[in-house]
Amino acid sequence: MLIRKPSDIKSSEITSRDHYVDRRSFMRGALSGAAMLGAAAVGADRVADLISPRTSALAGTKLETVKSPLSTTGETLTTYQDITTYNNFYEFGVDKGAPSKNAGGLPTRPWTLKVEGLVNKPQTFDIDTLLKMHPLEDRVYRHRCVEAWSMVIPWVGYSLSELLKQCDPQSKAKYVEFHSYFDKKVEKWYYEDAGINWPYTEGLRMDEAMHPLTLLTMGLYGEVLPNQDGAPVRIVVPWKYGFKSAKSIVTIKVTDKQPNTTWNLQGANEYGFYSNVNPTVDHPRWSQKTERRIGAAFYDQRKQTLMFNGYGDQVASLYNGMDLKKNF
Prior knowledge:
Blueprint: H1 17-37, H2 39-42, H3 44-51, E1 65-67, H4 80-85, H5 98-102, E2 112-117, E3 123-126, H6 127-133, E4 136-144, E5 149-159, H7 160-167, E6 175-180, E7 201-205, H8 206-209, E8 215-220, E9 223-224, E10 234-236, E11 249-255, H9 262-266, E12 290-293, E13 302-304, H10 312-315
Parallel strand pairs: 1-4, 2-11, 5-12
Antiparallel strand pairs: 2-3, 4-5, 5-8, 6-7, 6-11, 8-9, 8-10, 12-13
Helix pairs in contact: 1-3
């Protein structure tokens, strides 16, 4: 397996978190006077959302991190604003801006993550233990959504394999299944669809889960994850379409059977179990040959999609002998 060690990212390519916060503070100040004048018309709650989208009380908490040789370089990072306000998190609404407004009530403390199933040492970890279990790494990954848009995101975490090794998977373990948090009693948790089997579930083959690139993720831009981005702990699998990277996970089940997953159950012909990024296999309703980079300048928005999202040198060997057009 080839894992290249890249040079450091240029500081000019990073949008400062402090710069972002300062800009947001200015905008909130400019909006507040006008917004308050319209409070009677639109309602106080709506005005509050306009001025300051709902976020976790832990938002802005810094994390101690180290640089990772597994980071992607050579591409401009997507801004913190775009990463935190353009989200798919259907439990909090189907519009891209809904999660940033509605996810503030997600209870991220206390939080536990259970690892069970075909492991010799089943365990339950609280979030603070997870944060201290292994050095937290800054990892920049390309993110490619199945909807044909993309970002470049500076995550914080460490390889999922570090957690799984603590639980000692058995030799007959073949798959890993992820279960996300689900509770209709959470404020603003309102999305219901009879065709979706909640809680959200996703899965990987064991060798995919143990691959060094598969990230147990607890931060973004050097801080704890915002709720709308999957706080307090999620999975990131950079060579697969984004829906494979389960958010706000509470259970990891190690199994010998391929698990059912939420979007595969919704439409197996559109959302395969593997869902590796593959520009040669179109979605039934749109092309996957190109992608729109969120936040990029107009002339640089449309990009050619790369096989395995550009991580083929590291992961292509996992699929030797497979027909990637049939096993999508």
